[in-house]
Amino acid sequence: MPRIIAVFVCGLLFGAGLAVSGMINPAKVLNFLDVAGTWDASLIFVMGAAVVVTAVGYRLVFGRDAPVYADTFSLPTANDVDVGLLAGAAVFGIGWGLGGLCPGPALAGLGSGTREIFVFLAAMIVGLIAGRLASNARAASRAH
Question: What is the pLDDT of residue 129?
């Protein structure tokens, strides 16, 4: 039960940070990305704060022998850049640039009830399903 509470509190804190920073507002994000037009540089401070918090967090966490609620650290081991990674990054970036949202802020923005958030999340779910189907098809073609 303490692990579930910790996960809930962390998610709540993360979502609140996204909401307070304006990351759940697609117009603010799109203005940040529009460096040649109506550029809004305020999200640089959000990114800078995120980098500092992450750097400090990594130092504190990896100074421990094990995570608080697990026996070992679970870190990714893949370090190769392949077509799937590049395609996924491109689709993510294009979606972020067109919609002004990425998954975290979209989920945090659900409470706003705006139509754009729900349309984005529906498109994201369709994209996740399509990506899974494409991945399965690639794996099946390699197996034959």
Answer: 94
Q: Give the residue among 104, 128, 132, 118 at the shortest CA–CA distance from 23.
A: 104
Tell me if 21 sits within 8 A of 46, measured CB to CB.
Answer: yes
Give dist(CA 131, CA 18) in Å, integer.
26
Low-confidence ranges of the chain (pLDDT < 70): none
pTM: 0.72
Asked if 127 contacts 91 with a C-beta cutoff of 8 angstroms, the reply is: yes
Could you tell me the two tokens for 27? 């117009």
Evaluate whether 132 touches 45 at the Cβ level (below 8 Å).
Answer: no
Residue with tokens 């099946």: 140
